[in-house]
Amino acid sequence: MMRACASAPGKVILFGxxxxxxxxxxxxxxxxxxxxxxxxxxxxxxxxxxxxxENPAVKASxxxxxxxxxxxxxxxxxxxSIPQSVGLGSSASVSVASAAATSLLLKGELDLELIRRAAxxxxxxxxxxxxxxxxxxxxxxxxxxxxxxxxxxxxxLNLDEILIINTGKARRTGDLVxxxxxxxxxxxxxxxxxxxxxxxxxxEAVDALKARDLELIxxxxxxxxxxxxxxxxxxxxxxxxIELCMRSGALGAKLTGAGxxxxxxxxxEDEKIPQLMEALGRRFEVMRCELMAxxxxxxxxxxxx
Length: 305
Ligand code: PMV
Description:
The chain has 305 residues and is of the alpha+beta class. The protein has 9 helices and 11 strands.
């Protein structure tokens, strides 16, 4: 094979971001936005879109070439429909697609565990203590419960779509993970209590999702948001979007991913969605996004800008 292309989905964390870093469970879903990487053999190093420096996608690809004993070079090309640095797992998806394209090119198959591990190595370059949730869901797709020490348990989320509102403020995951650590260092006892509450929300949310109880899902999102606010990862932009969501008919909304800006997710009854999109769309980028999307796969390189 001379060239190979793979794609991997972005993600939303429905419940439990940040607390997942401290080994609490989180509920996560792959979404219908994807990153694509094409790999072509070359004779000099691993070069990404003409750039030879270190970055997560290159590191993920290099991990695969090392494991497969390939010492030649690779040219990698990226296209992605996932907005960057706003909590939708764009970087992890690119790392997963990069490891997958490398594995396809050199081995002719997708070795999922190798890909997940390679992408995790790549992410360690830019993230501070990554829990592994982004790379796991981008690899395996679908949705379910992720715990750092126990891994991924897939589960039907019973929701086809979610509203994603981009506050438009980019931020760095590592900075926000550090902010939570500082909170924990300063308020150890309170943080332990918050972790307990966060875990309680997860198990209630699992039941609410099974029952497709949108009202309860909405209320649990608001409770989860309150905990994220307390550990310092909400922001004025996030709170403004949530307030607008609630004024426009949503049942609940919260930040998704690291916070500090980035994206907000919201749930609403189907008939309220058009009015919500209209109200939010006047000020923000709003996406009605498929949940439970397919994980990493062989793909063709798309005609995206
Ligand atoms: O990098 P983001 O914004 O897609 O989300 C990362 C999720 C965190 O829980 C904040 C960090 C982690 O490693 O789990």
